[in-house]
Design brief:
Layout (H helix, E strand, L loop, with lengths): L19 E9 L5 E11 L4 H10 L1 H4 L9 E5 L3 E5 L1
Parallel strand pairs: 1-4
Antiparallel strand pairs: 1-2, 3-4
Length: 86
């Protein structure tokens, strides 16, 4: 069986075609204390707020903090931070 290339070129890293930027994410308790923080997360530069929040929520390290807890608030600061209050 042979599967041909469709969206990439041989010898070229597909990630070289995507511009990335640095972002941060935090999960805080209602009292403001930080439960989880990650700095230096690389996300595509042209992602929307919805795409960034969705990816952050589904990250394995982040999602473990949501187990059996309601998400009370999402704080998004463009090009800087995603903060979840649980």
């Amino acid at each position: 069986m042979h599967i041909g290339r469709k969206f990439t070129s041989e010898g070229q890293d597909p990630y070289e075609l995507v511009a990335f930027r640095q972002a941060s994410s935090e999960i805080r308790n209602p009292d403001g204390s930080v439960v989880f923080a990650a700095d230096g997360i690389e996300v595509p530069a042209d992602w929307s707020e919805e795409q960034i929040v969705t990816q952050a929520r589904h990250d394995t390290k982040v999602s473990e903090w949501f187990q059996d807890k309601p998400l009370r608030k999402v704080i998004y600061v463009e090009k800087k931070l995603v903060n979840f209050v649980v």
